[in-house]
């Protein structure tokens, strides 16, 4: 079984180090995906790539931004002869949001996605979508402190709720099903 490869394009505006990004934004959810799929991860951290990590993502039209990022990522993939399969993801990590309402953008089964570090669960949320997890199958859960929390793919971020830092069983199933037939 092939590992899942994350090409992580850290936008020029991100002020966090690779170490902080890894520990606070990637570790938990990738450990979870590893545990449920049996696949390991390869992380390829990429910074300071003109034409890529200075991508203009702020827009009222999130769909147009997602389409543009898809084209930039596909171009990078072509020039570097990389994979574009179920186990490859091209993640643009941004400091800011696309707009007031939109923290990231991903489509089911599409390898390219955008996610902001403005909230801890956004990267896990968008990666979940790209692995076919849905808002409908996300839910409010309860954390170890007995407080209501949002699972990764829950659609509304509320400051009054904690993060669960996990996918729901149904969304785990979507992720497992999506990856199970990949090489
Ligand atoms: Zn969503």
UniProtKB/TrEMBL annotation:
It comes from Pseudomonas lundensis. The lineage of its organism: Bacteria, Pseudomonadati, Pseudomonadota, Gammaproteobacteria, Pseudomonadales. This is Peptidase M12B domain-containing protein. InterPro entries: MetalloPept_cat_dom_sf.
């Amino acid at each position: 079984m092939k590992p899942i490869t994350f090409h992580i394009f850290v936008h020029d505006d991100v002020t966090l180090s690779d170490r902080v990004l890894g520990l606070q934004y990637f570790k938990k959810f990738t450990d979870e995906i590893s545990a449920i799929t049996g696949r390991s991860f390869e992380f390829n951290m990429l910074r300071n790539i003109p034409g890529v990590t200075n991508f203009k993502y702020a827009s009222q039209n999130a769909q147009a931004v997602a389409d543009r990022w898809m084209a930039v990522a596909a171009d990078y993939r072509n020039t570097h002869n990389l994979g574009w399969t179920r186990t490859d993801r091209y993640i643009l990590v941004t400091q800011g949001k696309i707009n007031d309402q939109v923290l990231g953008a991903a489509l089911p089964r599409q390898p390219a996605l955008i996610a902001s570090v403005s909230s801890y669960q956004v990267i896990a949320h968008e990666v979940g979508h790209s692995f076919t997890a849905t808002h409908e199958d996300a839910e409010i859960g309860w954390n170890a402190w007995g407080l209501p929390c949002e699972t990764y793919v829950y659609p509304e971020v509320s400051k009054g709720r904690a993060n669960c830092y996990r996918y729901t069983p149904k969304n785990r199933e979507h992720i497992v099903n999506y990856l199970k037939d990949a090489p």
